[in-house]
Give the backbone structure.
Amino acid sequence: MVASDAISTGELILYLLPVIAIQLALMVYALVDLARRGEVRGGSKAL
């Protein structure tokens, strides 16, 4: 691997940003869904 072929930190962040945004959106959706449910199957909401 030649040094000029290496990916820079800025490029890496740009590639990972959409993945991180999707992950955060799914986590928020899951927490909101959990908060709105009256009961959950298999234990308590705290778990």
Q: What stands out?
A: The chain has one helix and no strands. Helices lie at 9-36. Residues 24 and 30 are 10 Å apart (CA to CA). The longest helix spans residues 9-36.
